[in-house]
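HOLO CASE FILE
Compound: zinc ion
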Amino acid sequence: MITTELKLEYYQALIHKKSEYEGVFYVGVKTTGVFCRPTCPARKPKFENCEFYDTAKQALLASFRPCQRCRPLSHPNHVSELVQLLVNAVEENPEQRWTENDFRKLSVDAATARRQFKKRFGMTFVEYARARRMGIAMKQIKAGNAVIEAQLTAGYESSSGFRDAFSRIMGAAPTLLGDHHILKASWLDTQLGPMIAIADEEALYLLEFVDRRGLEREVERLRLRTKSAIIPGHTAPIISIQSELEDYFNGKRFEFKTPLYLLGSSFQKEVWEQLKKIPPGQTSTYADVAAAIGRPSAYRAAAQANGANQLAIVIPCHRVINSNGEFGGYGGGLSRKRWLLQHEKEGL
Ligand SMILES: [Zn+2]
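Model generated. C-alpha cells follow.
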C-alpha cells in the first residue's frame, strides 16, 4: 500500500527526476492515460493527477499505457529490441490474445520472449499482454455506466475497438445481450488498492483485488458458468458491499451482510461456509478447516478450495494459515494478507 506520505515523497522525486527512484515506483497520469518512470523528460503532471504504483504491472492493470518518451518497460540505458518490438505490437492491437503462431509471424521465439520479459518486468510477455487487456476492460468498469451509454449513443459500429476489448474479457457487447443474464461490475477503491465487485440484482458473485493473479481467467469462468454477460454498473449488492467495505477498512465492522452467491462444487461451498465461521482477527489452518467439515484427510483439497475463493475479505480466506504457523499463500498477495489480519486484530 502506498501511503499519502509516500505519495508526496514520490511526487517530489518525480518533479526532480531523481534517478535513485528508478524501479521503486511508476506514476500513472490520469489526464493522459500514460504511465512513466520517475525520470521521464515529459512535462510533469499536477499531484492530483498522479497515481503511484510499485510495479509496472499494477500501472497496466489500472489501465495506463506505457509512455512513449520514458518507456517505463525498458531499462533506462538498454532497450532490448525484442522487448520493444513486442510492447509496440501489443499497443497496436491491445485486445489480441497471443499464440505461438503470432510470435512466429513476428519472427520471435516465444521462449526467448518469455525469458526476456520475465527478467525485465517479473512477468512473462503473455502475462504482460493479459495485464494490458485486463487494464482496458477495467478502464470501462472504472468509468462505469457513463462509458457504455456514450458508446451506445454513438453507435456501436464506430467503436468496435472498445467493444472487442471489453467483450473479450467481460462477454457479449451490450447490444447483443438479448435475454442474457446480466452481471454488473464496479471498481471499488480501497486502502489496499482497487477491487472489482461483480453482482446481479440479488447477490455478490465476485470481489477481488484487480491485480490478483489469474483474475482474467476467474472472470471468464464466472461468465461462462453463469451464462452471463458483464457490463459496468451498480446493483444493490454492489452498493451494499461498497459501504460495508468502507466500514471494514475503518475498523467499524468485520462481519458482512451483503448477500453472496457461491459458485463452486458442494465441497468448495462447505469450505467457504466454514471460513465464514473463523472469527475476525483469528487464524485457522487448512487442516482445522478440513476437520471442521468432517473431512480431516482432505486438507489439501481444503487449501485448494480456500485458494479458489472469489469473494476476497468477505469470505475470509486470509484467516487461514499453514499448520506450521507460516502464512501460507494469498491470491491478493502476502502483504495484503498480513495487513488484513493485523487490521482485524487491532480493531477488536
Ligand atoms: Zn514518460
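CASE NOTES: Residues 36, 40, 42, 67, 69-70 surround zinc ion (CB under 6 Å). Strands lie at 26-29, 34-36, 50-53, 65-66, 181-188, 195-199, 204-209, 228-232, 284-285, 320-321.
CLOSED: yes
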